[in-house]
Structures are given as structure tokens and as C-alpha cells.
Amino acid sequence: MALDVGVIGVGMIGQEHVRRLDGGPGGSRVVAVADADAGRAATVAGRLPAAKALPSGEDVIASDAVDAVVVTSWGPTHEPYVLACIAAGKPVFCEKPLATTQQACRRIVDAEVAAGRRLVQVGFNRRFDPAHRALKQAVDDGTIGAPLLVHCAHRNASVPQHYTRDMSIADTAIHEMDQLRWLFGQEITAAQVFTPRRSSRGGELQDPLLVLFEMADGVLADVEVSVNVHYGYEIRCEVSGESGTVELAEPAPVRVRREGTVAGLVPADWRERFTLSYDVELREWVDTVVAARPPGGPSAWDGYAAQVVSDAALQSLHAGGRVAVELPERPGLYR
Ligand code: ISE
After folding, report:
1. Where is the GFO/IDH/MocA-like oxidoreductase domain (predicted)?
2. Which among 83, 170, 280, 328 has most CB atoms closer than 10 A?
3. 233 Cα–ligand 1 center, Å
């Protein structure tokens, strides 16, 4: 069976997902798109064999032609679109963050619980990256003994004009918040943000940042967030355990040695670094929707839990100090 998908928001990430979903190996096609910029929606639809540009995201969700929805619009619009999908009983893949406040994420969780079935998957793509999966496998297998410490770095070559100080936490480090919860299968219990000497390349931004997370079992994770490193896009993670360490390897496919140097290419941006993860993520999502199974990827609860941690880290960024993370009990739908 082909899955007919509607896409709301066809900016950079939206177009990436459209490319994968239209005629993708899982048997999906894009039949409707909408964007705040109607001209852009028309251009994207014009490139696709079966897609129409519709006036609004609400029209995409309401369309009888649309079986499932992908939300890749601006973060503050996620909540109403995801709630409308739940009300319409349509599966929805929503890019991260699920919504921009924990209250909004909670309303989504509550709506899904009231509907009594899982319809939402959140775009925390690292869970689908082969290297991150291998890292988790090594931790789960006990290869390095009990984990004790984690060292991560999240580096962007540059960020767009509209990127604000809070986005280093809410838009960038939120990936590590989900990754740490997923890697260890437990919650983050506190966050503290440190503000080192600022890079002269960061303009008004507080760049870099160092965030310290405490996990429920006492593991400590430090995360460097640098968003103006210029040399490329780099994601690092090393877990230090009682009997060894495991870390993500360099993503460069080859290493060249010549004239006294060793060199390997650094990806330019997240699209290049995580291309395979997006392929797997959308393929697995399409497969579960077609099979009428609940989504296997990050749930609305995961989106909510990451947002609660993000809010704690933002509080620490603004006011300093360690901020405890308090999560309510996980509803039965997500156990
Ligand atoms: C972007 O939205 C992403 O998801 C990237 O993975 C992250 O590195 C970047 O900072 C975000 O803006």
C-alpha cells in the first residue's frame, strides 16, 4: 500500500524530508504541501508528480487525500498542527522540538493519552544514526562496564541570522537531552549551564556553552555547544565506563596521509552528517504507519521530557546554578 503524506512547512528540513518521502523505498508519496510562504509551497509542489500546494497546514491535515502528516514548520506552530492531527486520528511525524514550551508538549501528551493511541513521532534523528546505534549497543552489552561519565561536543560551523542565545539550548543541545535519555534508558535529573569565555565569532551569542547533566543513576555528562566553529559540523560522544570507553568514530569515510599530515573530511552541516539517519528515520516511520503499528521512534512523551530538561537548562543559563528536573509520572500509554 502506498502512503500518501502531507507536509506542513517546506523550508530546509521540510524539503529534505519531501525528497525522501516522495517515491521513497517504503512506498510513500507526497500529495499535499503547505508553507507560510505560499510561493515556496507552490514551487515545491510543482516539482512533485502528485502534490498540491494547499493554503494552510490545517487544510493539509483535513484533506481526505492525506493519510499521514509531517510537520516541519517553525517550532511555535508545531503544537496546533500536532493537536489537529491527533483530533483527526492521523499519524504525525513532527520535527524537533515537539513544541517550544513544556506546557505545550504536555497538552500534546494529554491529547494523545485521551485519544488512547500513539499517533505522534518526534524527529530526534540521532536514534536512527548507525554510529549512535552502535554506541548504544556497546553500552547496553556491558562492553565498557558500568557507565560513569559522558563527554559530548555539538559543534555547528555557523548558524543562521535568526538564531538566538536560547537556541543553543532549545534547538541545538536538545538533541543531547534526548540522546542521553535514550542511551541510558533513564531520566536526566538536573542541568547546569556554564558560560566560558566567548568566541569572537559568535556576535551577541553566548558561544560556546558547557552544559552538565546529571542522570538518575549518578552518571555525569558534559556537553560542549559551539555554534560558530567554521571548520565544519562535528558531533562527538564518548562514554567512559568502569572497564573501558566507547566513542563515536570520525565520520569521514577515508583518511589521507601525505606530506607529513593525516587528513579526513569534516561534514559541512547536519544534512551531510546525518543523511543516513534521516533515511532510516523516515523509512521506519513509513513502515510502521503502513503496517498500522504505533510509531517505534521517539514518542510525544520523549518530546515532552526533553523539553522539561531544556527548560531547566534555560533557567540555569538565565539565572545560573544547578536546576533540578522534575518529571511527572509517565502515562501508561508510553510505558
Ligand atoms: C538544527 O535544527 C539541528 O537539528 C542540528 O542537528 C543542530 O546541530 C543545529 O544546531 C540545529 O539548529
Report:
1. 132-247
2. 170
3. 10
The CA–CA distances, whole Å, from 295 to 7, 91, 93, 288 equal: 18, 8, 9, 6
**pLDDT tens digits for range 146-202:** 999 999 999 999 999 999 999 999 999 999 999 999 999 999 999 999 999 999 998
Q: Nine-digit cell at 274?
A: 546525518
Q: Whose CA is nearest to atom 4 of ligand 1?
A: 172
- What Cα–Cα distance (Å) separates residue 123 from each residue in 183, 281, 324? 16, 8, 25
Report the amino acid identity of residue 57. Answer: G
Measure the CA–CA gap between 100 and 74, rounded to whole angstroms: 10
Give yes or no for residue 156 CB within 6 A of ligand 1. Answer: yes
ipTM for the whole complex = 0.99
> Which residue's CA lies nearest to atom 6 of ligand 1?
270
- Residue 251 phi/psi, 5° resolution? -80, -10
Q: How far is the CA of 167 from the centre of ligand 1 (A)?
A: 9
- In the chain, which ranges are continuous DSSP H helix? 12-21, 38-46, 57-62, 78-88, 102-115, 130-141, 167, 174-184, 270-273, 275-290, 300-319
Report yes or no on whether pTM surpasses 0.95.
Answer: yes
pLDDT, tens digit (0-9, with 9 covering 90-100), for 211-259: 999 999 999 999 999 999 999 999 999 999 999 999 999 999 999 999 9
